């Protein structure tokens, strides 16, 4: 194994989530040999300040890694700019990086998988991203790990050779996509990934991850995914900046299986793509049914109040 990749952790104002993330990470067998670099964003208003300070007190007490470095932002950068700047600084210094946010609980084998994958595909120019997460899809017919066009950002890793292409360009990016490309980008329109690009262009969102996916896609690069997830998102409880309350997106079970065999054929897995499309379609259908149910309930409530007033 080459030199272990540094771990970059981005935190803000969620002390409980941050503690869960760090506690799980410390259970990884490579934690004590890994450098941890924590970027702590400053509060965006007075209301956020107490929780930010609580998080900062916690991270100053972290022990158990090879080293712990803390960067406390003096002004509020916001999640997207904080991640873009932090990843760029660290990956340019070390050549590779493992990235976590403060709501990602990891399997004890997460760091092993990430570092092994970074070693295995280091010189594969078409491989740009290693994902620690996989949606709870049907994995029949998949190997231990497979390639996708899609990028999933809950616990991930990359190299300088890939990240140097990153660009957040909401104004010009949409014009680089044809309708056929948009459909492909959206997994045959079973998901609405490209809507995030447009939302960034019109100012409704200010995010970073969708542009990493877009850059990977436009360069015809690939992302490695594990068959079984090495991470679980615990942030869909309404506490995050860009995530509301949801159980759907955090249902993946952490794997307890290692070692695994890496895919040697560098091409998108059609089996994996089909499984992701089926999963996205089922979740879209569920969302649609929930919306219809909510509309029907609202109609009945409105009718009831009309009868009783």
What does this structure look like?
With 309 residues, this protein is an alpha/beta fold. It has one domain (7-168, 208-268): Alpha-Beta Complex (Spore Coat Polysaccharide Biosynthesis Protein SpsA, Chain A). The protein has helices at 15-26, 49-59, 79-94, 110-120, 160-163, 179-185, 193-201, 209-218, 270-308, and strands at residues 7-11, 35-40, 67-72, 96-101, 104-106, 127-131, 145-148, 156-159, 222-226, 231-233. The strands form two sheets. It has an eight-stranded mixed sheet, sandwiched between helices. Strands 5-10 form a two-stranded antiparallel sheet.
Find the count of extended strands (DSSP E, 2+ residues).
10
CATH third-level topology: Spore Coat Polysaccharide Biosynthesis Protein SpsA, Chain A
- CATH class group: Alpha Beta
Number of helices: 9
Percent helix: 25-40%
Which outline best applies? globular
Query: Order of helices and strands, N to C?
Result: EHEHEHEEHEEEHHHHEEH
Number of domains: 1
> Biggest sheet: strands side by side, in what order?
3-2-1-4-8-6-9-7
Please summarize the sheet with the most strands.
8 strands, mixed
Gyration radius over CA: 20 Å
Mean pLDDT: 89
Structural class: alpha/beta
Topology overview:
Elements: E1 7-11, H1 15-26, E2 35-40, H2 49-59, E3 67-72, H3 79-94, E4 96-101, E5 104-106, H4 110-120, E6 127-131, E7 145-148, E8 156-159, H5 160-163, H6 179-185, H7 193-201, H8 209-218, E9 222-226, E10 231-233, H9 270-308
Parallel strand pairs: 1-2, 1-4, 2-3, 6-9
Antiparallel strand pairs: 4-8, 5-10, 6-8, 7-9
């Amino acid at each position: 194994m080459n030199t272990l990749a540094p771990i970059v952790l981005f935190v803000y104002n969620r002390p409980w989530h941050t503690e869960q993330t760090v506690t799980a990470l410390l259970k990884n067998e490579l934690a004590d040999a890994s450098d941890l670099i924590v970027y702590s964003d400053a509060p965006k208003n007075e209301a956020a300040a107490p929780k930010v300070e609580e998080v900062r007190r916690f991270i100053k007490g972290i022990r158990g890694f090879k080293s712990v470095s803390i960067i406390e932002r003096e002004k509020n950068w916001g999640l997207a700019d904080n991640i873009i700047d932090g990843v760029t600084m660290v990956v340019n210094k070390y050549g590779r990086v493992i990235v976590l946010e403060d709501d990602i609980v990891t399997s004890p084998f997460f760091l092993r998988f990430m570092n092994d994958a970074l070693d295995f595909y280091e010189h594969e120019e078409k491989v740009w991203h290693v994902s620690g997460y996989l949606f709870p899809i049907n994995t029949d017919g998949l190997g231990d790990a497979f390639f996708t066009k899609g990028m999933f950002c809950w616990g991930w890793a990359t190299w300088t050779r890939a990240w140097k292409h990153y660009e957040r360009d909401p104004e010009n990016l949409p014009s680089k996509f044809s309708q056929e490309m948009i459909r492909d980008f959206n997994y045959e329109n079973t998901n609405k990934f490209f809507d995030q690009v447009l939302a960034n262009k019109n100012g409704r969102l200010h995010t970073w991850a969708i542009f990493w996916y877009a850059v990977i896609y436009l360069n015809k690069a690939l992302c490695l995914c594990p068959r079984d997830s090495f991470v679980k998102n615990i942030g869909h409880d309404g506490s995050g900046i860009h995530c509301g309350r949801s159980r759907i997106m955090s249902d993946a079970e952490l794997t307890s299986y290692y070692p695994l065999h890496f895919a040697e054929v560098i091409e998108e897995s059609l089996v994996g793509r089909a499984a992701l499309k089926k999963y996205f379609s089922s979740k879209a259908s569920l969302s649609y049914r929930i919306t219809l149910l909510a509309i029907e309930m609202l109609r009945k409530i409105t009718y009831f109040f009309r009868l009783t007033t």
